[in-house]
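Hi,

Apologies if this is the wrong queue. I'm a grad student, and the batch job for WH2 domain-containing protein from Planoprotostelium fungivorum produced an output file that my downstream script rejects. I'm not sure whether the problem is my script or the file. Here is the sequence I used:
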Amino acid sequence: MSTNQDLLKGIETGASLKHVETADKSGPVIEGGVQLKKHDRAGLLGEITTEHKLNHAETVDKSAPVVSDAKVGQNNHAGLFAEVKAKGAKE
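Support response: The file is valid. Your script probably expects a header line. Output copied below for reference.
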C-alpha cells in the first residue's frame, strides 16, 4: 500500500480524542456595579446625516519630496540615436 492510501485510511478511521477542560477568558472584564444605559441610535444617526459647518484648518504640508542641489542637464538622445543609426548602416 502506498503512503497516500495509508494516510487516507487513517483519516477515514478517525482518532480517539481525550476530553479537555477549557477556561474561556475572551470576554471583557466588567467590574461589579457597572450599569449599562440605553443608547439613542436614531438620534445619533439623525445628527450624523444633518449638515454641519466645518471650520478651516491651517496645516503645513510636508508630504512633498525634498530634492536639494538637483541639477537637470540636457539629454544626449539625438547623439545616441545618430550613433545607433550609423552603426546599423555599417552592418
